UniProtKB/TrEMBL annotation:
Residues 1-21 form the signal peptide. One of its GO terms (molecular function) is efflux transmembrane transporter activity. This is Cobalt/zinc/cadmium resistance heavy metal efflux pump protein CzcC. GO terms for cellular component: cell outer membrane; efflux pump complex. It comes from the Bacteria. Belongs to the outer membrane factor (OMF) (TC 1.B.17) family. It is found in: Cell outer membrane. Keywords: Cell outer membrane, Membrane, Signal, Transmembrane, Transmembrane beta strand, Transport. InterPro entries: OMP_efflux, TolC-like. Its main location: membrane. Coiled coil: none annotated. The lineage of its organism: Bacteria, Pseudomonadati, Pseudomonadota, Alphaproteobacteria, Acetobacterales. PANTHER family: OUTER MEMBRANE PROTEIN TOLC (PTHR30026).
């Protein structure tokens, strides 16, 4: 009774899967998939906010003064010392910080360089997202092919098991063959369940990128017949990661220039107004100028220059590492494309041959020239070869799309 209940649950589960499979969303091509993922990418929003902030800083650096005005005021009389002779003074002033020579333009250059760097960071994120979508779609498509192969093997094992059960009932098959057929069917059922789990996990990972269920078709757009050849050196120079690293170097250089221009605190210049009354004298008003010039100090300047130097050295190092990393990645992408092209051809031939072998073994078994175990092994090998062929096809499309992305083409 428990076995029947378990079988009903499993059957019901696969029925749900079949219904869900029929309600799967329409397939979209890779280009549309990347655009959909880009529209909901949180990193894109973060980088865009940072870009607008850098533009705002650049605009603010065009101000006439290095900061906001400072208001000051004083009030003094002779009551606090016990005298009441009428000595009263009101004094107020306003001053503004001034730019040091070249400091304003250097500040604008830093903000503009940081905005340009964030522009390239957006391109880097778009590239990274494209690769994540490609990998996720490939994983989901391979999972579908694995489940398809598992279904095929299970259907074959079920058919053979039914034949053996009927033969055993009429006394034409031994119990050992019945046990083999039952065992192979259960193994196929287990592989089917594992393949289903792998497919659901891969679809869930892909759904994270789109915030909705999406099925990506990688077979469209992977055509390099009309793609113009690009030199590896040009591919490196045009890679967003190399460009972003170079923009970071430019921003660090601009920051170094700003640090040199900020060799002292900003001086302040303003006006003062005094309104006072002295004993026995009429009210007296005076207007004057005030200024404040802090002198340079190594205690202040050395940390600023050190930080700017460290930032520039780090940016230079990251640019070299980015170029090396991109160079290595392009080499790997080209090698992967060649290997995938060869695998696509060989697995296709192998799958066709293994299918013929499985058919021949089944015929030999029916006429009593082969054992059931040999037949099941041949069918298992044929299903594995079919899955390897389907996987090689997907990986070839992935390698082609990845090569186009490395060439700066959005498929």
């Amino acid at each position: 009774m428990r076995e029947i209940l378990l079988l009903s649950i499993v059957t019901f589960s696969f029925g749900i899967f079949s219904a869900n499979a029929q309600n799967m969303p329409e397939k979209i091509d890779f280009h549309r998939a990347v655009n959909m993922a880009w529209a909901v990418d949180p990193v894109r929003t973060e980088l865009q906010v940072g870009h607008h902030s850098a533009k705002a800083r650049s605009s603010a650096a065009g101000s006439w003064f290095a900061g906001g005005p400072t208001l000051s005021g004083e009030y003094m009389d002779d009551h606090a010392i016990g005298s009441n002779e009428g000595y009263t003074t009101y004094q107020g002033g306003v001053s503004v910080p001034l730019w040091l020579p070249g400091q304003g333009s250097a500040t604008r250059q830093v903000a503009s360089a940081e905005a340009a760097s964030l522009d390239e960071q957006l391109n880097v994120e778009y590239l990274s997202l494209s690769i994540r979508v490609l990998d996720g779609a490939a994983k989901a498509q391979i999972a579908q092919e694995r489940l398809k192969a598992a279904h095929q093997l299970y259907e074959y094992a079920s058919r053979i098991n039914s034949l053996i059960a009927h033969s055993a009932h009429v006394g034409e098959s031994s119990s050992s063959e019945s046990q083999i057929a039952q065992s192979e069917m259960e193994n196929a059922r287990n592989e089917q369940a594992l393949a289903q789990e792998y497919l659901e996990n891969s679809q869930a990972e892909l759904e994270v990128l789109f915030a909705q269920p999406v099925e990506v078709d990688l077979s469209h757009g992977a055509d390099m017949a009309h793609v113009r050849f690009v030199e590896p050196r040009d591919m490196e120079d045009n890679d967003p990661r190399v460009k972003a690293a170079h923009k970071n170097v430019e921003a660090a250089q601009a920051n170094m220039k700003l640090a040199r221009r900020s060799f002292m605190p900003n001086p302040e210049l303003g006006i003062d107004v005094i309104h006072e009354k002295q004993y026995g004298s009429p009210w007296d008003d005076r207007v004057g100028v005030n200024f404040s010039i802090p002198l340079p100090s190594e205690a202040r300047n050395t940390p600023i220059m050190s930080e700017a130097s460290n930032r520039l050295a780090s940016a230079n190092s990251q640019e070299i590492q980015a170029r090396r990393m991109v160079h290595l990645e392009i080499s790997r992408v080209r090698a992967r494309l060649m290997a995938a092209t060869a695998a696509r051809q060989t697995t296709r031939i192998a799958a066709a041959n293994m299918q013929k072998r499985a058919a021949a073994e089944e015929h030999a078994w029916r006429v009593g020239e082969a054992t059931l175990e040999t037949v099941m092994q041949a069918e298992q090998a044929a299903c594995n070869a079919q899955f390897a062929n389907a996987r090689a096809e997907v990986e070839w499309h992935v390698a082609t799309l990845r090569m186009m992305i490395a060439m700066g083409i959005t498929p």
